Task: structure prediction
Amino acid sequence: MSESKPEGRLADEFRNLGQNLIEALRVAWESPERRRLQQEIESGLREFGKAVESGYEEVREQVVSGEAQSRIREDLLSALQQVNDELKKATEQMAQRGDQAGSTGSEYADQTEKHEVHPDDVE
Result:
């Protein structure tokens, strides 16, 4: 009699839902597609591991042989040379602008000396 009540039917439906979800998960887990996907993931991880190991060995050999240190020094030297060249160019350009502004400024100073303003002339 309690099965005919809405509460009983609701509980039955939740029980059925739980059983159906369990069955759906079991079928999905055992599916050939999931197994194929698992094999692809495992294979990909093995290849990734080999690549990391190979890269590690290459870097280790470079460090041991001093090749990495030499390459870092060469790259650092090249970068410093570029920075110094650019800084030198910028300094030269600023100096040229300063010379141009300086001559204009001294001409202005010469002109203002001719037209001095006395405090008595200001109201």
